[in-house]
Prior knowledge:
With 329 residues, the chain is α/β, with parallel strands linked by helices. The protein contains 13 helices and eleven strands. The radius of gyration is 21 Å and the shape is globular.
Amino acid sequence: MSKLMDTIIARAKAANKHIVLAEGEESRIINAAAIVKQQGIANITLLGDKDVILSKVEEGALDGVNIVNPKTSDKIKEYANLLYELRKAKGMTEEKALQLATNPLFYGCLMVKSGDADGMVAGAINSTGDVLRPALQIIKTKPGIKTVSGCFVMGLPEGSPYGENGVMVFGDCAVLPDPTAEQLVDIALASAASARKIANIAEPKVAMLSFSTKGSASHPNVDKVQQATAMLKEKELDFELDGELQLDAAIVPKVGELKAPGSKVAGHANVLVFPDLQSGNIGYKIAQRFGGMEAIGPICQGLALPVNDLSRGCSVTDVVGVVAITALQ
């Protein structure tokens, strides 16, 4: 684990949250659950057949871990009724709700919605779409936000002058290919919240990135960022925000002073909102590979309650890290 991840885990321990792992019969998930419980990172519920789960681990390794089989759970009728009430306007029937509630991805989200868990992690053996679909149907987005997006917490090399205490947040580098101005607003709001909750950035300074700074270029792609910035500035924000800014204007003080004099963000940004997925995905990977930055994520943001999607190639260590991040959300 890196120094940044160690800090996240330490804060997760103090938060003392309960996370449900929907893919409880998968070996990586089982091993991660044992580590999370043993280290006191979070309380854990594994979903699946208890006999199958226990057959894949040494005796006693899962002591203190809750194991629930959705198919035989005494909560299934309660959860199915909740799902029916949430979705009946969309054509959900009681029979279909009962069937779906036994699906671990739906059951896990229903646990979170009911307050029986604080967050859910899945994706080791399920696609992103399969993980997020029940989350969007059951948990839905935060009030005032209509968009689920993704961010990365970026750990900078020691001695770097950028970010806050060696940390920055990049969004959206994972979910929305071509966000509208309205969606960029949601990404900025969610990224600022992630900066506080996960990256421990007390005062987010959000830069709306473009290839233009304050009208230095004219193009529809610039217009979109300008529109998003204007919409954000009409809101009562609890963080500093400015745009549109080129990357150097956003993070280099001398360039910020030259290109955007008087800006409270230019030259000091610690949260970068990219104008589209191409630039965001390329940007974080350049920072990671050329700049030596640590990229933790993608982290799902914008949901009313936390659900995170694992990579299907994830390691046990990755799962432990995502559980800690989910606890902080």
